Amino acid sequence: MWLGAHLGIAGGLAEAVEEAEKIGCESLQIFSKSPQMWSGPALAPAAAEAFRAAVPAHGIRATAVHHGYLANLASPKPFLRNRSRAAFVDELHRAELLGVDALIFHPGAHVGSGVDAGIRTLGESLTFVLDQVPEHHVRVLLENAAGQGTTLGSHFEELAAALAQVDRPDRLGVTLDTCHLFAAGFDFRTEEGYGALMDQVERVLGRGTVHAFHLNDAKAPLGSHLDRHENIGKGEIGLAGFSHLVNDPRWAETPGFLETPLNDRGYSLYAADLRALRSLRPAAPTPSATAAPARRRTVRRSTVK
What we know:
36% of the residues lie in helices and 14% in strands. With 305 residues, it is α/β, with parallel strands linked by helices.
């Protein structure tokens, strides 16, 4: 898995990529604007170009923009639904300009209209926004939910039903958040539990549908339906709960983004979480003490004086 984190862009787009490399990221997720705003200032073409150039230059293997928190593509209210669709189209344009691999978003909530109606509206909204940008390449990824209130997507069947309504498999997929999985009742802390989770992924979603992970420990207990992130190894999931995921060869080239809490220590907490995840991987093999010694290279000395 390509391990990385969600970093801020207050200091600049390209600077966020540089900061990501400094703390050991292989993947990077950002907001393209404030997540509490419907729209933001236009991205300067020069800044976007600098971001695109910085990504390979600093060894970042995968990138994503996370959509803001206001949009609800499943809303039964026409005004909010239409505003959400417009904001989503704008965010797709911004993501395309930045050249990221994916735009990650929360599927939204049915707000009392019912699960079936909410999924139907979500599918209609996704079809609408993708029709507005047929030439774009950014993949849109639905993020699983913790199951709080009327939010959609805590069950894989709901995510699969929304995706099935949109005839663009090349543009759609899923991001799985570990905290949300745990809060929704998926216990993957043991080998058996992890295997059962992956069986469900294969059966309901299809492994090829999963294009990213959010790597977060959980403050709240299993099945709490509370979206409360914790630093890796400090919560209810624990270090062992991540070991199967980060060592699974099926996800070797899939990005995993930290969204764990930060404090006045800043990104040093991300760096510690990345080290904790990497510590779960087997140590690189060392040469055996009984192995045959390497042949010494014979150096022909010059006879010229």
